Amino acid sequence: MAQVQPNANVSSGGVPPSLPESVREEVFVIIPAYNEGEAVGAVIEEVRAIYPNVVVVDDGSKDHSADVSAKAGALVLRHAINRGQGAALQTGIDFAIEQGAKYIVTFDSDGQHRVEDIPALIDPILNGRWDISLGSRFLGGVENIKPSRKFLLRLGVLFTRIVSRVRITDTHNGLRGFSRKAAKRIHITLDRMAHASELIDQVRDCGLPYGEVPVHIRYTDYSKAKGQRSTGAFKIVFHYLFKRMTG
Ligand SMILES: Nc1nc2c(ncn2[C@@H]2O[C@H](COP(=O)(O)OP(=O)(O)OP(=O)(O)O)[C@@H](O)[C@H]2O)c(=O)[nH]1
Ligand SMILES: [Mg+2]
Q1: What is the CATH number of the domain that holds 76?
Q2: pTM of the predicted model, to two decimals?
Q3: Is any ligand 1 atom within 6 A of the Cβ of residue 170?
Q4: pLDDT (tens digit, 9 = 90+) per residue, 67-116?
Q5: Which of 54, 86, 184, 190 is least enclosed by beta carbons within 10 angstroms?
Q6: Is there a domain that residue 224 lies in?
Q7: How far apart are the CA of 126 and the centre of ligand 1, in A?
Q8: Is residue 217 part of a domain?
Q9: Ligand 1 pocket test target in 81, 85, 113, 114 with most atoms within 8 Å of CB
């Protein structure tokens, strides 16, 4: 049986609060959105104040997410039907590569992520330390999370440790950074939420160094009402294991 991988590298802090303008212009921030019309505009404005290249992938929303995103200055790609967060991320990553992105950040549209965390994701890539930064709320911080969600996320970490044999501290965190080289090696095939586990397997196997970066996640009343149900965890495990057995 394969050995459990040693703990992933961890960023030790000391990261500058902002990146040079020349680097910021090479960053593409990919924001998947599904019925996030209420929150996505403010998220885009906050990100665009610092990172000009913001790509929203409107995942077949039935609300005005796409219009709000375009008004806030994002480049908007649309799925004609709702395909899931995994599919939305892959669409955004492919587009960013095509556009010549040097660094790619994935960032949620429900207001849970902080723009201030982006330099810490890019810095180790910029300095050649690794190619993939995985955000960790358990190394950084998390506000207003329900204990039941925290427990499920911890179970997810244990699942990843046992099944994928990767020791990281926050498997289902959508805040990540990739070098162009790494983004080209990632091919998400699980359209819905199980993509996070598939992604970790690809990170493990892609032959590039990776590490974890402390980030802060804030759960708001809006994001809690809009976010995942705990029962979704069963679907994630089922989709992921089915793919592993058949794929
Ligand atoms: N739920 C859902 N989100 C999608 C979909 N496609 C894209 N997304 C976006 O993916 C991001 C993460 O979705 P969430 O449902 O908040 O998932 P999460 O943050 O892992 O879960 P919570 O901890 O419950 O917030 C959000 O920006 C969504 O708008 C989809 O089909 N369903
Ligand atoms: Mg969320």
Answers
A1: 3.90.550.10
A2: 0.94
A3: no
A4: 999 999 999 999 999 999 999 999 999 999 999 999 999 999 999 999 99
A5: 184
A6: yes
A7: 28
A8: yes
A9: 85
